Amino acid sequence: MEYNHREIEKKWQQFWEENQTYKTEIDHSKPKYYVLDMFPYPSGAGLHVGHPLGYIASDIISRYKKLKGFNVLHPMGFDSFGLPAEQYAIQTGQHPAITTEENINTFISQLKNIGFSYDWSREIRTSDPNFYKWTQWIFMQLFNHYYDKSADKALPISHLTAQFSTGGSAAVNAVCDEDVIEFSAEEWKAMSEKEQQLVLLKYRFTFPEESYVNWCPGLGTVLSNDEVKDGVSERGGFPVERKLMKQWAMRITAYADRLLSGLDTIDWPEPLKEQQRNWIGRSQGASVKFAIADLRLPNDSQNRQSTIKNQKSIEVFTTRVDTIYGVSFMVLAPEHEWAMELTTPEQKDAVEAYIKWAASRSEVDRMAEKKVTGVFTGSYCINPLSEEKVPIFLADYVLAGYGTGAVMGVPSGDQRDWNFATHFELPILPILDSQKDIDQQADNTKEGRYINSGIINGMTYKEGTDTLTKWLEERKVGKGKVQYRLRNAVFSRQRYWGEPVPAYFKDGVPYLIDEADLPLELPKIDKYLPTETGEPPLGRAENWTYKPAPKPPMGALDTPPLLGEAGWGLELSTMPGWAGSSWYWYRYMDPQNNGTFASKEAIDYWQRIDFYLGGSEHATGHLLYSRFWNKFLKDLGLVPEEEFAAKLVNQGMIQGRSNFVYRLKSSEGEGKKPVFVSHGLKEQYEVTQLHVDVNIVENDVLNTEAFKQWRSYYNESEFILEESGPAKGKYVCGFAVEKMSKRLYNVVNPDDVVARYGADTLRLYEMFLGPLTDAKPWNTNGISGTSNFLRKFWRLFFDDQTGKQKWVDAEPTADELKVLHRTIRRVEDDIDRYSFNTVVSTFMIAVNDLSDLKCHKKAILNDMVILLSPYAPHISEELWVALGNEEGTISSAPFPKFEPKYLVESSFEYPIQINGKVRANIPFPIDMSKEDIEQGVLANETVQKWLEGNTPKKVVVVPKRIVNVVL
Ligand code: ANZ
């Protein structure tokens, strides 16, 4: 039999499908293992060879764990809402659902071609109403809950309203907006329904709010921070500006602390965890109120204090309250709501001009700016400690969205403040005795003792900080505060192709639709564009309204809203791309369930993801949002684990390897025949370097005929070929490692590789390219090595020429067993370290060794096939059956057991020296006596030849070292 990958692979893929080999059910008799890939967005371009890298690795783990006796859940699905399908719909008018379906079909056929062990019966699509029904359902739970700080978890809104009714706002300890009002139980009860609802929105986990967003006019939607890269949209590269808009938000900040502490409990890459920590950005500090100076302040200290207290004040957030005696100015963000109010008539023009200029700059520009800019408002505030008057400036190094949007300027403590003070010639007040060269640079030291610092003179950093915080808290002009960089996440997109938000508005206040009316399906619309009045595409739908079913009245809050004529208007924005991906792993556990997002039985069994694989670019997007939603579901008692994925691995990017041709400049232009010069000669000419399709280049040699057909304008091309060397007479291309992209003609389609070399070779080769987590270029040149390896493996079973069976049913030798068990041990050790590339080389060494030993023994080959099967499943199934095993059972065969005894050396090969020269090597058992070894040496044929019939004078046996024969 000959190794024919085409026949074999097709046959087994069909077999697996017909027999549902990889269908998984709950099985309490086995431990479970859940292996998941981040599901792909089904783009129109299909898969390139970079995509399967992670899928192959996770498939190997799944198959390996199954051999190890686990019940493995290994599903695949599609994150199928998204911008490209909608952009295409805008251009062509084709419904995005159709494009999406076509793309998914391409993906599935490409994936099936590679022989993954997915349980396809569990496939999910986030754009399927049966799936997004539950995304909407989770949204509704978020709307109906708030974060209770005393309970340190999410609780139902009804718990909050109960507290309001009995103890007013003072009874509540909850995460909420900054600007909540205080009220008594009586005041609460006296509020109208609308007033109550507006209060509750400040507590709900999801709520509409006015906020600054990243508005992308090119895409007609807002984007999240992680969808913006270098000031432009990640998809499409359109400019992004800051705009104040009403958006749904998610109160992820409620979980800031748990998102931080949870990182210590999961096995995720350290750099990724660090990225999340920085994104959450916890700062311990204090807020301090600086009263705005009334120029008519009384002179006596007592009255001064009380006047200051009653005045309007600016609140700052500082991590260095200890430096408060060094404050010589105050800076507000240009967007600060009091900016204009504080501006004196003389400064009005300058301030207006500055605010306008600042609005045109992105946050990134502002953070990166080295030059000092700013403007004086003309007003002053009062340092509550020193009671000094401090000038108020606007400057764009202060960000509106962080802290309070206001900073106390301490030039002797902070570099930027120092730069600012120097520029505007403001005082620099030394406050630490250890500060040297204060004119040279700001000294941010926390060492030394305070000077010129009133009540903290002579104290250390800790004493000073504690004393001041206490002082401020006692007088209610400040308090210790923890500040996070993490912002509430914007949860609206002004687009069509996303989950509809299951909420309608009555009198400007949002209400949820009835759970029984889920899913709220996307309506049909005529065009996928905003309306003429600038509303999102859903504004085009007819009757995009909701009529709640009448309910019996049950108190103020439960009174059904009065029906409008046609019902209330539903939300026009849709959910962002990260909605469906924030919980999808639970749906795989029980994908068809109609009554709940996944049954309790399924969740109790599968618990969470044991091994999650995907790109590190999702660090502060998907991977943070998912942790947030999971904690929320945990608080509701719906899922068992605080963290959704115990282990995460980021696979490295596969880069493209581009090829170039060199066109003579003299052959460029209308009507001229193109002339291309080979790489080795290009220095002798003036040339233009052009990308060429890597699929018509092999080992860097261009197929010139294919090149002529590639583009019609090249069909008359002429070539100047290599004149010497091994490539003489050939056209050699240049190469470079770049991103894999259509534009650079370096995309390699896995389908082509599979057609030519087979899926098993592709799988092995992708793993062989290098460590899973490294970035590495794809280079088809090396693939023949892995393909030859599989052929060599095949030859241990069958004769290549005659096709006859070679394997035999004989007892294996010690050497053969040694090769096998060395391989078992390495394969197991390496896979436990996710070192797949070294496993492939271990296989290669083993097959070489077995070939050298001429080993064709079934006992060895059987185990070798099992070892190889996670990596190259098709050939392994075929050879498994050829060895007489039952069809299709290899995927659940027991993983071979490593036996150390086979690696223990039982004999030693002695070098035999005759008169000082090694003349032979003879093995003897390790425990053989010296006398027996001597006898054995002298009886040896080769030794006898050298003795030429003489009796040696002396024979010295050094155990496990050497035998010396002296004539
Ligand atoms: C006075 C001071 C003295 C500060 C000193 C630092 C050093 P992190 O760690 O990032 O939280 N700050 C506060 N709000 C800001 C905003 N909206 N935009 C820009 N800067 C802002 O840093 C907090 C520190 O950054 C705060 O402490 C404040 O400056 C500044 F020797 O207050 B500090």
Overview of this structure, please?
Helices cover 32% and strands 18% of the residues. By secondary structure, it is α+β, with helices and mostly antiparallel strands. The strands form 9 sheets. Strands 10, 11, 12, 13, 14, 15 and 16 form a 7-stranded mixed beta sheet that branches. Strand 27 and strand 28 form a beta hairpin. Helix 24 runs antiparallel to helix 25. The protein is globular and about 125 Å long. Mean pLDDT is 92; it is low at 437-443 and 558-564. Ligand ANZ binds at residues 283, 317-320, 323, 398-399, 402-403, 405, 407-408, 410, 413-414, 444, 483.
Layout of secondary structure:
Elements: H1 5-19, E1 32-37, H2 52-67, E2 71-73, H3 83-92, H4 96-112, H5 129-143, E3 145-148, E4 153-156, H6 157-167, H7 185-190, H8 193-201, E5 206-216, E6 221-223, E7 228-229, E8 232-233, E9 241-250, H9 256-262, H10 270-280, E10 282-292, H11 301-310, E11 313-318, E12 329-332, H12 348-359, H13 363-368, E13 375-382, E14 389-394, E15 406-409, H14 415-424, H15 461-474, E16 478-484, E17 489-490, E18 503-506, E19 509-512, E20 545-546, E21 568-570, H16 578-581, H17 584-589, H18 600-606, E22 611-614, H19 622-635, E23 648-650, E24 654-664, E25 675-677, E26 687-692, E27 697-698, E28 701-702, H20 704-710, E29 718-720, E30 734-738, H21 750-757, H22 759-768, E31 776-777, H23 783-795, H24 814-832, H25 836-852, H26 858-868, H27 873-882, E32 907-914, E33 917-925, H28 930-939, H29 941-947, E34 954-958, E35 962-966
Parallel strand pairs: 1-2, 1-22, 12-14, 22-23, 24-31, 25-29, 32-35
Antiparallel strand pairs: 3-4, 5-6, 5-9, 7-8, 9-17, 10-11, 10-13, 10-16, 12-15, 13-14, 18-19, 18-21, 20-21, 24-25, 24-26, 24-30, 27-28, 32-33, 34-35
Helix pairs in contact: 1-27, 3-4, 21-22, 22-23, 24-25, 24-26, 26-27
The chain binds ligand ANZ.
